[in-house]
Design brief:
The protein has 286 residues and is α+β, with helices and mostly antiparallel strands. The chain contains nine helices and 13 strands. The longest helix has 20 residues.
Amino acid sequence: MNQIIRQSLYKANDHSSVKNVKRVAGGSINESFFVETERSRYFIKYHVNSPSGFFELEADGLRLIKSTKSVSVPDVLAFSDKKGEAFLVMEWLEGRETSKTQIQLGEQLAVMHQNYGKKHGFNKDTFIGTLPQPNGLFSSWLDYYRDKRLKAQLEQGIRQQTIKGKRRDRLERLLERLGDWIPDEVPPSYLHGDLWGGNWLPGPGGKPYLIDPSFLYGDRHFELAFTELFGGFTPVFYEAYASEFPIADYYEEIKPLYQLYYLLVHLNIFGKTYGGQVDAVLQRYV
């Protein structure tokens, strides 16, 4: 591990002495470290068996979010996707949430969502966790969401035997009728793509930062729906967001359909614990 840390620091152009290395919490996917050198402090993630392009895609997502000049992201200083020694080096962020943090997060996310791509989806296949997320660029949000998001998880679940019987039947019937609820023509907003409470943090002065994106262009309400699924966002976050960018009237009706994608992902990664929530959404619409 010391060798990987030294390699990552060299690639970040820091050749100074290492003063401190401490393992830190960084999710269930990567090994994560706080590293302090004579020159600076860093957050370094390491993955011994990362999929091809794993950290490059994360760096791309952070770069695209940063380009909107809205919500902040940590600076990416170096990365490698070399098999067996893949890493990502970012600036170390440390701070405490203040009474203004979630207000700023809501306002800034709304500004980010007012940046648009030309089409829905993304030009590269990405990951949600370590689960492959096939992509493409679509003129229709409905076609993209049905074919590249829900259908991809259906196929994954069939292979893993997590989606079968009544669950499979209901999901297949839902896909046939998805156009009854999901809009076809909506602006393709810049989206973080994996925005739950663990993928943002307060930095210096309580300033909010987004981390660990799975970037795409799409309906901004898809992003908002996920923020509501597992918590981590206060009422003032949503009030601040809506004051900057009012939420569409159709949102409450289709929110469970947008949350369904993330529930299917969790079902396919973690197993039957999430089966009941998936079935509840399917039974509501089918």
